[in-house]
Amino acid sequence: MASALSTDSAALDSCADCSWNPEGASFPEQFAWGAATAAYQVEGSWDADGKGPSVWDTFTHQGGDRVFKNQTGDVACGSYTLWEEDLKCIKQLGLTHYRFSLSWSRLLPDGTAGFINQKGNCSFKIESCAALIQGVDYYNKVIDSLLANDVTPMVTLYHFDLPQHLEDQGGWRSDATVKAFDTYAQFCFRIFGDRVKLWITINEPYIIATLGYEKGILAPGIAEPGTGAYQAAHNMIKAHAAAWHSYDRLFRKQQGGLVSIALISGWAEPFNPNSLADQEAAKWHMAFCLDWFATPIFLDGDYPAIMKSKISSTCKRQGSPLSRLPEFTEEEKVMIKGTADFFSLNYYTTRKVKYQVNTHSQISIFADKEAEEVTDPSWPVATGSSWLAVVPWGLRRLLKYIKDTYNHPIIYITENGFSQSDPAALDDTQRWEYFRLTLLEILKAIYIDGVQLKGYFVWSLLDNFEWTCGYSSRFGLFHVDFENSALPRVPYKSAIEYANVITNNGLIKSHE
Ligand code: GAL
């Protein structure tokens, strides 16, 4: 399987690559070696110490077989009480960086600053409550112990777990959530920003919009095809921009950190490279995924032109003079443009893309796009995730695309990984081969393509609650035994290999 991957990649490389073997190369100095987690997926303690419910608490507690075996994140990896165990894993790997998310409703139970999670009586003034806030204490402990061990925290403010109270007011379909997010972000910058210098506002707005508000297969489970995703994305982009400006205006000078938004994207390769229609469709696929968010934030404050024109012409043909894609005002465009201090990319997979004619009978973002995604049957698929075709060379192409399209930004790969199905073997040799091939492509991106890549974060530190797959899909560098109430963490072979890479700041030459 590995050799099939290598051959595919080699065939796609240009001749200039052939003379250079990345295997013995070192990564740049100060390269960030990380792993990532998210609050709902690892913390558990879903209602401890006054934490409010998030949309994921509600979604999983409703049952209905939307999640594998109706599993929940109520306990997950128990990281809220077992943080020291996670820290041991981080130290064992030798990570330089650790990415984790804050649970918004652990800090602000109803999502607003009107109620701070507190024990005892104190005023609502954040400063005077800080010592009493349980959520703050927990995250302070995490941040302080990371720093004490020379591990740099990268903190995501919001990773899929919107406070339920805000969802009840319309969630991301409501403009009010923009303000609530900005207030929450300011709260976090104020409390943690003296020590946290790398911030991610929102994790994967594309996934939240399309799967949470368009298809309804992730929380909050809203199925509003053709409108839900566009509205949710519109408000998330504004919320991100508002938080970035708050940081810039109120905290940057004193705290000196960087703020970005984590964008997920696969790479799109034309199904038939000789077909003009497929070439266009591959571009549309990128426009409706990565560029939907990256164009306004990194380029000009507005959606990609092709996205606007495709949606509005479809709407006209469907008899509506108004586009289903909301418009930014001129003032908003100015506000949104340039609101990221680095490019945060989550990469998992690649697709071949075919032109798919829109008959206009169907109202959905996917019909608007007119592009069908196909997986090449020769690509291996991660055993724990049917969607995860393993295509390391796709990452290199995507990185080059980002360099060329978004003005050569500094990039961090803030998530990349491969799942095993449960039960998963500790000797995950094949999974490490995927990591190894991916790291080789990253080296080519850095040294041949000149991409400014500053770091790489494995998803995930631990096996955890993998959304609708529950605990059946294992992405961890450490195995977690969810049947054992002590939730022991044991390294997979990939963890040991990854630790070697970190120690050497490069791959060790294989002697096959
Ligand atoms: C990402 C998400 C993570 C994790 C990963 C693997 O989209 O940010 O939370 O679930 O996918 O599926």
Task: Report on this structure.
By secondary structure, the protein is α/β, with parallel strands linked by helices. It has one domain (2-504): TIM Barrel, CATH 3.20.20. It is 41% helix and 14% strand. It contains 19 helices and 15 strands. An 8-stranded parallel barrel has the order 1-2-3-4-5-7-10-12, surrounded by 6 helices. Strands 6-8-9 form a 3-stranded mixed beta sheet. Strand 14 and strand 15 form a beta hairpin. Helix 10 (205-214) runs antiparallel to helix 11 (228-255) and helix 18 packs parallel to helix 19. The radius of gyration is 22 Å and the shape is globular. The relative contact order is 0.14. The structure holds beta-D-galactopyranose (GAL). The site of beta-D-galactopyranose has 12 residues, from loops.
Summarize the structure.
The chain is of the alpha/beta class and 512 residues long. 41% of the residues lie in helices and 14% in strands.
- Beta-strand percentage range: 5-15%
CATH class: Alpha Beta
Binned, the helix content reads 40-55%
Give the beta-strand count: 15
The protein's oligomeric status is single chain
Our count of helices gives 19
Gyration radius, rounded: 22 Å
Structural class: alpha/beta
